[in-house]
Amino acid sequence: MTVNKFIRNLLNLKELSVTHVELHARKRTLDLWVKPYKNGCLCPHCHRRGRIVRIMDECRLWRDLTLYGCMVMLWYCPKEIMCPTHGRVQENIPWADDYARITYRFEYAMLVYCQIMSQKAAAQMLHIAQSTLSDLLHRSIERIRDGHRIRDLKAIGVDEISYCKGHKYATIVYDIKKACVVWVGKGKGEKTIDRFFKEMLSDYQKRKIKWATCDMSQAYINAIENHCPNVTLILDRFHIVKKLNEAVDEVRKEQWREASGDERKTLKGLRWLLYRHSSKRSKKDTWILNTLRKGNRRIHRAWVLKDEFEHFWDYKTHWAADRFIKRWTTTALKSRLEPIRRFVKTIRKHMHRILPYVETRMTNAVAEGLNRIIKIIKNRASGFRTLEAFTDLIFLTVGDLNIPEQIPKDFRTI
Ligand SMILES: [Zn+2]
Q1: 109 CA distance to ligand 1 middle (Å)
Q2: 35: closest CA among 50, 20, 23?
Q3: 353 with 284, same domain?
Q4: 139 belongs to a structural domain
Q5: Do 306 and 169 fall within a single domain?
Q6: What's the domain range around 397?
Q7: Which residue among 31, 93, 241, 263 is buried most deeply as judged by most CB within 10 Å?
Q8: What SS3 class is residue 42?
Q9: More confident residue, 273 or 202
Q10: 286-312 pLDDT, tens digit each
């Protein structure tokens, strides 16, 4: 076995042959002069052989993965060829994308590392500067996602997320069936979500959307119902529960403000207790809440109403759920608790968007799960200054396209 062949086999360099090797022990670099297998000259578009027009004067170099602490560099002078169909083009480079400075293998490692660790850690593992890494990553993801289209969208979830330390907002659209993110747009509100429907989906695709979930923001509701004619919109369960919890908390705050010093003692520590779902309460918690019946009637009333409302989610038939919610809202209105009454008004307004939950059991749970992953990405990077950098990582980790899988198969090794 010649040295060149040995190196080619060791580094698993497919579709290229090594012509010359130089190892600089002190600089810890391994320079490999390579050329495409069988002399190359293939058109990058149609893979037919073309006539050589020009050989570049300067050698180009590509960065490959580090081997035993040695930086591996590939050197080659690409040729310009004349393809009968595509005209004058640069020949196909089998180990890297056109005009890329890194090999596919390096790119694959970078994408996989960035999926599971912070960019700082990934940069350390790849022996490059962090700024270089984010630059390379952005270009890579942009190239791979270029021309990618949303497919087979039947159920969507819409939510908002903050970035840049909570100062700025982005709207995220999820594919609920496939549990992935299909779109990220700057800003929140109707204009942003409008852009998704106008730019990303055809009329046919919009008609295909059967289900949608979102929070109670009127902007999202309007946009979804305007654009998708066949959609059944179901308001997200978690957001409804959150609204009710907020109303109960407001009752507590009101009472706290009105209470005198001694009364306040009994109201202490109630906040989280009231938030808790009945199934997660200990006996002691229930006892404390029950004593409120004598201590503070209004908070007790709000809490009982909240507990009762939990049953709504267990109903399995439309008519029974409908009857339940009508009864509950009537009782709640009689309670004379202003925050609760406001909640009832919202519920009544959105009744036809809440009841379908009973039959479909559709919640934004998938979106909540993805949201959690997105938050981890955000925390790992300790915030993002630009939405582009954030979007890159969202698509890389929970996007609708498996990005590392798009690298040619032979180079998917680390
Ligand atoms: Zn061609």
Answers
A1: 30
A2: 20
A3: yes
A4: no
A5: no
A6: 155-235+363-411
A7: 93
A8: strand
A9: 202
A10: 887 777 777 788 888 888 888 888 888
